[in-house]
Every structure is written in structure tokens, then in C-alpha cells.
Amino acid sequence: CIRDSSRMLTQGSLLLSKSSVVSIQRASFSSNTKWTRVASVSDVQEEGVKGVEIDGKKVLLSRTKGSFYATDFKCTHYGAPLDTGVFYNGVISCPWHNAKWSVKDGRILNAPAVSDLNTYPVKVEGDEVFIQIPAGTQVPPPSRAANFVSGSDNRTFLIVGAGAAGTTAAETLREEGFGGKIIVASAEKDIAYDRPKLSKMVGLPFEKVAIRAEDWFREKGISILRKEVHHVNLPSTDVSFTDGSSLHADSVLIASGGRARTLPLPGHQLANIFTLRTFEDSQNIRKAVENAKSAVILGSSFIGMELATCLKKNHSNLSSVTVVGMEKVPFERVMGLKFGQLTQKVFEANGIQFKLQRTASQFKGQNKVESVVLDNGEELKADIVVIGAGIVLTSEYLERSGLELNKDGSLTVDEYLLATKKRQVYAAGDIARFPYHSHHIRVEHWSVAQQQGRVAAKNMLGKRIKYDEVPFFWSNSLVAFRYAGHASTYDDIIFQGDETQMKFIAFYVEGEKVNAVATVGVNGAVAAIELMRENRMPLASEVRRGVDLDKLLHRKE
Fold first, then answer.
1. Whose C-alpha in 12, 198, 432, 495 is 20 to 30 A from the C-alpha of 365?
2. Quick one: which of 462, 453, 463 has its CA closest to 172?
3. What CA–CA distance (Å, rounded) separates 528 from 518?
4. What is the 3-state secondary structure (H, E, C) of 375-395?
5. SS3 call for 225
6. Residue 72 · residue 103 · CB < 8 Å
7. Among positive and negative, which fits the CA dihedral 117, 522, 326, 360?
């Protein structure tokens, strides 16, 4: 340690005459780097954060339990400013998509971000707070996945699927120091990309959606096996592939997700009829829409409405964008009737047309699609059609494995994401039906899949970590919203805020219990997650009188 007449510097803290504390964090300490005054102690309230600037670089200064910490300012996912996020118990949450980090060491705690935050040395002298930024700091910091010794473990782990759950699991295994073989099997051409972007910004180049380059996996000793799994044999965990090859794995993670549901209607073989699930799908849609004048989207839920927004905003050559849906209003099945009515008005005001409580019965055209015929006989012009009818789970290869599949093809797992009694087969992502409160649920949320991949990987290594996260998803269209919780059933939806300005919170309640919260144009969803986790959500009767979720979260009992 370093000593002088006024202070003592140790690895964990700096003790000053006024009981001030300096956090010596993961960023290296350099005596050659200057300390910069950034704030007064009184500028940052206890359990609060403040954005500060050092030589043009924004830094997040936080204060918790009497100590100050400094981290990178922006979320490593989409770059949201973290000073507008929720800070609670030493954890900063992104205000947009609920990624979480510990401010003490910068470690990523929750998806959808995949990178840590840098942390910087902080010191307090009297009433002044100083931060030091070491020269050459890399933003974001290097992945912890480099911290392993190749060959230090003789086990082989197989991950089936290279989507959100599978690639996150592979990275987590290396972050945890696993030195054995990691094989990720996927028949898809492209891997490790940000699937939610595909419906929001159709046609982006791969470098704009890639989460990790394939070279990154190679550098970490993670093998990408572009093969389709034919069969998983239990209890041996021998795995065979459709090309006739096979391998033995000591543990298997099932994260094969699903494929886009198609509509085998008359005319379905015509050109310019697409689904949207993969990067290749997105590129094909981009090429086809460039010369189109009319687009029809079959499906009025999240993919359909995001795609309708993208096409209308970014392709002026389209004279019409029409959404066909089975529901009374868009989003009705998940978000409810009133929510759907409010959003439909916004879409219609922006030129998007709807044909609701309708289904397609036929596609017409010569070589390319020219129109869509609805079940009532109405015919819609269509130079391009995109089907957004959900997914079919990819689990046929498990039918004779000894694992019991549910009717929808999903696997029921326990709180540790185990699909078998012996600790050998785990499941994560869209395919996993996991315990949530008193029943099992399956949700197709990107961040849920990532976080389950992280938990499953740790448990494959012998840990016993429960997956107990509150489900969360977001949708960015003409109406952007965030949703926390799970409400497969509810008695009522309580709206709080200004519905005419599309700035409100919707509480999905069953009896006195709030099962889920959706926010439009206001904060509250991230705070709701913490309140649900701690079983401190207000009762429905309290919600009707008006509540502030952010204030409630920080209220001392």
C-alpha cells in the first residue's frame, strides 16, 4: 500500500481523515495519470448517480453505502445514457432494455448487453470528488472470456444452437474459466447476431447486427460446427448429426430455438413471399422491397408491427403498407384491447393500413406475388408479402431422445434449467419452459434467452444458480414500449398517465396482484422488475390511487 501523512491507500479503499472512501477498482491505477475533480460530495446523493465529464469523455459517478464509484457512461448494448437508468443496491440498470452492471467491478449482470463496463479509480478529498482515467483505456473493456487455460479440463460441452442463449452460454463458460472443449452446433449460416434488430431496421449489413465476430469465438477456443443435429441419445449424451457424424458430450445445452412459421396457402411458392427470422431473411426482404410499391404483412403482433414501421419510414417507394391480423386490434393477445386501440391510432395516423379479424386464404401472381386474397374475398395488392405468424420450435431431433417434449415442442426445465434429473442436459431460450411463480411458462424474449444461457452455463460447471429473473422485453415501432413481468391472465388493465400523448404505464392486474407492467413514453418498467423481484409491487387498489414506481423502489421500509 501507499502511505503519506494524510491518507492510507489500500487495495480496497482509501481512508481519509473525514472517513471518505476511495474505491480502487478494476481499471489499473497509474501515478502518471492525472486526477480530475468532477464533483462535490453533495452533488451526488446517497444511492444516486451523476454524469460527469473528463477531457470530453462522459463518466458515470455513483454513490452507494458511503462509497463513490466511477464507470463508463453508456450502456454497452445500444449506448443508452446510464445516468437516466435505475441505480439500486450498487447495480446500475439501463433505462432502455434493463441490462445491469455492478458499479463496483463493472461486471455485466443481466442481458441484453454482453460487455462489462470499465471502472475507474475515485478519490475524495474533503468535499471534492476526483476520478482518474488510465491512458489507453479500451471501451468496452476486453471480454473476461480470455481468462481460461486451454486443455485444463478434459470435458466436452455441446451447445445446440447459436442464437442468444447458445452464444451467451459459450462465452460465459470461458468467462468462468472453463478450459475444456466447447462446441456450438448450428445449421444456420450466420451466428451471434442481434436478432431483434432485424425487424426494426431491415437490411442492415452484418457488421451492424453482429454481436461477436466468428474470429472472436475461434480466439476463445470455441468451435462452431455448422451441422444439424439428428439425435441426442440419453443417458449417454452421444449426439449424431444429419451428415452421419457423431460425438460424445459430457454435458449438453439445448438452445435450438425455433424457425419462422410459414403459411402453406395456395400460391405460397411465388417469389417475394418471405418470413423474417434470420439475417438472410432480412437481406432478402431489403432487396425485394426496393422495387415494390405495395407491401402486405401477415401478423399484427411485435414482428409485424415493427416491420410495418420500418417499411413505412424507410421506403418511400411504397405507396401502401397493410397489416393483416386475426385480432381485433394490434398487440391484443399480449397487450390487451385498449392498449391495441391506442397504438392502432398512431399507426393509422402514419399511413399504415389495417385489415383486422381477417386471415389470408390465397396468394396470387404469375412468378412473383401480386396480391393476397383474404378470407372474406377481399384482394390486396402486394408486390411483397412478409409473414409474421410466430415460430415453430426446433426440437424434432429430441423426439426419441428420452426427453419428454410438451405439445408445442418445448422442454420443461427446473429452476436450474435442468431438463434431466442427472446434471447432463440443460435447456435455455425459446425452447425452455421454466418455473415462474406457481407454474411453468415459455417466453420468446431475447434478453430472457441470453440470461438463461448465462445461468445454464454456470450450472453446467457444477454451480447451483436458480434462474429467477423477471421476464422483460421491449418493442420499438411507431409506439415504443417496455414490458416487465408475465400476465398470461389478468382481470383488468389499469392505465396511469396521459393516454392522448402516449405517455402512460399499464398495470396488468389479477385481483389485487400486479402481474405485469408496460410503459409507453415514461419510465417505470425497470423499477417494476426490482419491485417484482422483491415482492414489493403495490396492490391493484394502491395503483388505482396513483403510484410512482421509481420512488417506491427507493423508499425505505
1. 198
2. 453
3. 9
4. CCCCEEECCEEEECCCEEECC
5. strand
6. no
7. negative
Sole residue written with cell 434431466: 420
Strand blocks (E) in 439-489: 439-441, 472-475, 481-485
Residue 429 CA to residue 258 CA, distance in Å, equals: 10
pTM above 0.85, yes or no: yes
Using DSSP bridges, classify how beta strands 320-325 and 481-485 pair: parallel, antiparallel or unpaired.
Answer: unpaired
Cα gap 279→287, rounded to integer Å? 13
Classify strands 411-412 and 432-436 as parallel, antiparallel or unpaired. parallel
Percentage of the chain beyond pLDDT 70 is 94
Residue with cell 426446433: 394
pLDDT for 29 equals 38
At 102-118, the pLDDT tens digits run 999 999 999 999 999 99
Q: Contact 429/406 with Cβ under 8 angstroms?
A: no
Non-local CB neighbours of 545 within 8 Å, separated by 6+ positions: none
Per-residue pLDDT of 317-368, as tens digits, reads 999 999 999 999 999 999 999 999 999 999 999 999 999 999 999 999 999 9
Burial of 280 per CB tally in 10 Å (0-12, 13-18, 19+): exposed
The tens digit of pLDDT for each residue in 276-329 reads 999 999 999 999 999 999 999 999 999 999 999 999 999 999 999 999 999 999
DSSP label of 118: P
- In this prediction, residues 190-209 reach a mean pLDDT of 95
Which uninterrupted H or E stretch holds 544?
helix 540-545
Cα–Cα distance for residue pair 451/428, rounded to 1 Å: 9
